[in-house]
Design a protein that fits this description.
The chain folds into two domains: 100 residues, no CATH class; 134 residues, Serine Threonine Protein Phosphatase 5, Tetratricopeptide repeat, CATH 1.25.40. Helices cover 64% and strands 0% of the residues. It has 14 helices and no strands. The longest helix has 17 residues.
Amino acid sequence: MRKVKDVPKARGRGPETPDVSERSVQEQLDFALTWLKRHSSKAKLEGMARYAIPSDHAYGVAMKDIKALGTLLGRHQPLALALWATGVYEARMLASFVGDPERLTAAQMELWCRDFDNWAICDAMCFNLFDRTPHAWTKVAQWSSRRNEFEKRTAFALLWSLSLHDKSTGDEPFMQGLLLIEREAGDGRNFVKKATNMALRAIGKRNGALNAAAVVVARRLAESEDATARWVGKDALRQLTSPAVRARLKA
């Protein structure tokens, strides 16, 4: 990697740097990788295994620092592509903050999704970038039947994220999402079942009508003969029928 020139040492842990918006993509990439390395720690790298995150292509940087760098750099789709191409875990996480949802194509989303190899990068992309694109709902349906564990998780992590962040969409797409959840709730793979559960819970917290529909689905799953589906249903049902959720929806 080329040495980055004219980049001052960071003061403490803050992102004090000169304006990088006018630099070339290569210069910004070099700057970003250098910044990430400066904010890395051996302890953070070694701790990634506790969260089932591969660390063989990682520096060991806290998410708050990656987010701070993303804020500094701003949305820049060519830079996001360059960051992803490095294969470095933190660079790919940074791409979720730097990618431009208006310029991110459905084809590029597909290529990135196929590269997902852990739950953290999957969720970061969904919550920071994918759910803001015009292709989000189409991808939920497409990815929901994938065989690969993390591609399939992406469908339900994206549905979960849309349930929290998409304030303008009506109830119907979420009703369709409930059908996908019920169809796939028997997938016993850890990262898939957790995502279907979180999506079910999130949809049921949007409003009263969706809560009622989600509770019906959760009850059917809770009575399923399949152990995984039962867990998804029972766990969601406890929260969706809780006094706290009911009070918030009523208010």
